[in-house]
Design brief:
Elements: H1 2-28, E1 33-34, E2 41-42, H2 46-55, H3 57-78, H4 102-128, H5 133-160, H6 162-165, H7 169-205
Antiparallel strand pairs: 1-2
Helix pairs in contact: 1-2, 1-3, 2-3, 2-4, 2-5, 2-7, 3-4, 4-5, 5-7
């Protein structure tokens, strides 16, 4: 019995470590980037989604924390850009952009962690009710991806819109247009990538993650 428990723990750690290595690769190399007009789309949510489906929502939440940590390091020190203030208080892109603050850390970490939580809990609920396997694997992945998109953009709107908005309705409309374009150019491709991985990668791999 003890040997069986030890083997399960060892297998779990090996699988989590492999997914963590993939997370590091897509975070710190161009392999994790989807080039888009306004912001750079990311594939870094994919290992978080895979972890949540294969190893459970708690492991997914931990992987999401690593995703947030890697994002913080990239935007702070490795490859800062004009939108880095969204994810770190330690980079200033210039007077035309707001300075990052403590809310940057909230945006950087909370949506990433919740990717794993949402994906894993939705997967567990669908699996429990014997929903069709296509839906059981695809829907949690899509919802996990959209969790990140909605919360990041919502955080930008809530905590950083005012420096852009000023007092004019036109500027507010322009800000809304920017965020909408991000959803179209970044959020949708990221959700599609999550759907493909959830259905065509996680589904066949699930039998090995026991």
């Amino acid at each position: 019995m003890q040997n069986t428990s030890t083997r399960k723990k060892t297998l779990f750690l090996a699988q989590f470590s492999l997914l963590l290595a993939i997370e590091a690769i897509v975070c710190f190399t161009p392999l994790g980037s989807i080039l888009a007009p306004v912001m750079v789309g990311t594939l870094s949510h994919i290992p978080v989604i895979a972890t949540a489906i294969l190893l459970g929502w708690k492991a997914g939440a931990v992987m999401g924390f690593f995703f947030g940590t890697f994002s913080f390091l990239v935007f702070s020190f490795v490859s800062p850009g004009v939108m880095s203030f969204v994810f770190t208080p330690f980079h200033n892109a210039g007077d035309e952009f707001p300075q990052g603050n403590g809310w940057s850390l909230v945006i950087c970490f909370v949506p990433r962690i919740l990717i794993g939580v949402v994906t894993g809990l939705v997967y567990d609920a669908l699996k429990k009710h014997d929903v069709r396997s296509e839906v059981t694997y695809a829907l949690p992945a899509i919802l996990g991806s959209l969790t990140n998109t909605v919360l990041v953009l919502g955080g930008i709107w809530r905590f950083f819109a005012q420096p852009f908005l000023g007092d004019t309705e036109y500027t507010a409309g322009a800000m809304w247009a920017v965020l909408s374009s991000i959803v179209l150019t970044n959020g949708i491709p990221e959700a599609v990538a999550a759907w493909v991985v959830g259905l065509y990668v996680c589904k066949p791999l699930k039998k090995f993650a026991q």
